[in-house]
């Protein structure tokens, strides 16, 4: 799972649910909550700020740092959140 997060390009994001859906074929289940748990325990070394909820909100408790990093990467924003239509990335994209 962390390998997927490492592949998210600068300026793009994935939601917890999208990561779970992408990995469901390999793991046999899709759990956005499990992705969140893994990210909170082991996600420090990966670009954790590029994982947001499906509404484009950043990780709770680290909002200021996550937003600063996303803005620094020119991630598309709208109304104080990530613009999911423009910023969403899928691992199979070229």
Question: What's the SSE blueprint?
Answer:
Blueprint: H1 2-7, E1 14-15, H2 16-27, H3 32-42, E2 51-52, H4 63-72, E3 77-78, E4 81-82, H5 84-87
Parallel strand pairs: 1-2
Antiparallel strand pairs: 3-4
Helix pairs in contact: 2-3
Domain Methylated-DNA-[protein]-cysteine S-methyltransferase DNA binding: 2-61
Protein name: Methylated-DNA-[protein]-cysteine S-methyltransferase DNA binding domain-containing protein
Keywords: DNA damage
What is the CA-atom radius of gyration, in angstroms? Answer: 12 Å
Number of domains: 1
Helical fraction: 40-55%
CATH homology superfamily name? Winged helix-like DNA-binding domain superfamily/Winged helix DNA-binding domain
CATH topology: Arc Repressor Mutant, subunit A
* Shape-level CATH architecture: Orthogonal Bundle
**Overall 3D geometry?**
globular
Tell me the major beta sheet: 2 strands, parallel
Q: Going across the major beta sheet, what is the strand order?
A: 1-2
The level 1 CATH classification is Mainly Alpha
H-E order = HEHHEHEEH
Given the structure, what is the number of helices? 5
Task: State which percent range the strand residues make up.
Answer: 5-15%
Average the pLDDT over all residues and give the rounded result: 94
Unreliable spans: none
- Give the terminus-to-terminus CA distance: 19 Å
- What structural category characterises the helix and strand content? mainly alpha
The number of E-state strands comes to: 4
Domain Methylated-DNA-[protein]-cysteine S-methyltransferase DNA binding: 2-61
InterPro entries: ATL_DNA_repair, MethylDNA_cys_MeTrfase_DNA-bd, MethylDNA_cys_MeTrfase_DNAb, WH-like_DNA-bd_sf
Keywords: DNA damage
Protein name: Methylated-DNA-[protein]-cysteine S-methyltransferase DNA binding domain-containing protein
């Amino acid at each position: 799972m962390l390998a997927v997060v490492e592949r998210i390009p600068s300026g793009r994001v994935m939601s917890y649910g999208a990561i779970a859906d992408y990995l469901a074929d390999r793991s046999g289940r899709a759990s956005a909550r499990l992705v969140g748990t893994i990210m909170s325990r082991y996600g420090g070394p990966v670009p954790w700020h590029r994982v947001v909820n499906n509404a484009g909100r950043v990780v709770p408790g680290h909002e200021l740092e996550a937003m600063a990093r996303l803005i620094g990467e020119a991630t598309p924003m709208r109304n104080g959140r990530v613009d999911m239509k423009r910023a969403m990335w899928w691992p199979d994209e070229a």
